Amino acid sequence: MTYSKIVGTGSYLPEKVLTNFDLEKMVETTNEWIVERTGIRNRHIAAEHEDAVTMAEEAGRAALKAAGLTPADIGMIIVASTTPSMVFPSTACLLQERFGIAGCPAFDLNASACAGFMYGFSIADQFIRTGAIKTALVIGSEVMSRVVDWKDRSTCVLFGDGAGAVVLGASKEPGVVSTHLHADGTHKDVLYLPLGNKKSPNIESVKMLGNQLFKLAVNSLGDLCDETLAANNLQKSDIDWLIPHQANMRIIQAMAKKLDLPLERVVITLDEQGNTSSASIPLALDKAVRDGQIKRGQMLIMEGFGGGLAWGSALVKY
Ligand code: ACO
């Protein structure tokens, strides 16, 4: 039996930091409101010369280095991004060109917004399990600052830029124990981002019914925790770490409660990074791995939720 296993992680955050106090000067908001309602204090903003590809490259190279591998070892590239610089070629193909590894499959996943990384992670896991490939590079890379309306206080305070990467390699033992993906298009109007085209050339900005989304996120992610544990006959006490999508501190707290995990066992980057959409889970994972919090052999639940709606989780023995 072949499984996949996380063999390396990496991340990249742009240098520029935008604080809540900076935002107070841009829209009618306060640091107190943002911290209390979301848990966010700072977020990183990409420089003009940076985009989803450049950030994916930084994160990807860091993950490969951590795995002790080189680009030539990659059997598949998946980039989850809702903010690519081009519709095509895909960010993954542009990255492949930068890595100089023509030949391996490379594609983007942009349909599931913040859940994109979990979808990519699951797909890479399936390819490795079947023996089709031995190594996959899965990246979430987002320049959310370019798709938010900086005059809309209800959304612009939430998002940030960055990229996170994971290298999955073939293993005789799990590794990735199970992945669980879901979607429900009936909630398409709760969170969306219209694309620019010839008729309407400018890409619009993120539209969100925050309150409704909040409730849907808590319910769907709660059910997902139950499903992930039940599928593997595990108890809550078997879980060492929760690595959630970083959208709102209150949603994260609700998930910690659901799993009976103290907040010390939940990886939280939201306060310093905001919501980086599909980059948030691998960014959080990489931080916890590099800080020495997550250790080999520990049991992790990763879970993401975003536009579509789409949501997904993975149970991983690190
Ligand atoms: N500063 C001050 N006041 C604000 C701000 C702001 N930045 N934004 C909104 N308000 C006001 C509203 O106008 C409203 O005022 P009113 O009562 O006079 O009408 C009041 O604050 C309350 O607004 P709500 O939207 O009800 O605030 P809520 O407590 O729901 O918090 C938030 C909003 C933070 C967006 C929350 O709903 C949320 O996090 N939702 C979920 C988001 C999510 O899950 N995203 C994950 C998937 S999406 C993705 O990751 C791409």
Gross morphology? globular
N-to-C order of helices and strands: EEHHEHEHEHEHEEEEHEHHHEE
Give the tally of β-strands. 13
N-to-C span: 18 Å
Biggest sheet features: 5 strands, mixed
The CATH class of the largest domain is: Alpha Beta
**Helix-strand category:** alpha/beta
Give me the CATH superfamily of the largest domain: Thiolase/Chalcone synthase
As a percent range, the share of strand residues is 15-25%
Low-confidence stretches: none
Counting DSSP H or I runs of 4 or more residues, the number of helices is 10
How many domains? The number is 2
Order of strands across the main sheet? 1-7-6-4-5
Ligands, deduplicated: acetyl coenzyme *A
Task: Report on this structure.
- The structure is a single chain.
- It contains ten helices and 13 strands.
- With 318 residues, it is of the alpha/beta class.
- It folds into two domains: 3-171, Thiolase/Chalcone synthase (Peroxisomal Thiolase, Chain A, domain 1); 176-317, Peroxisomal Thiolase, Chain A, domain 1.
- The protein is globular.
- The strands form four sheets. A five-stranded mixed beta sheet has the order 1-7-6-4-5, sandwiched between helices. It has a four-stranded mixed beta sheet with strand order 8-13-12-11, with helices on both faces. The chain has a two-stranded antiparallel ribbon with strand order 2-3.
- 32% of the residues lie in helices and 25% in strands.
- Bound molecules: acetyl coenzyme *A (ACO).
- Acetyl coenzyme *A binds next to α2, α6, α7 and β12.
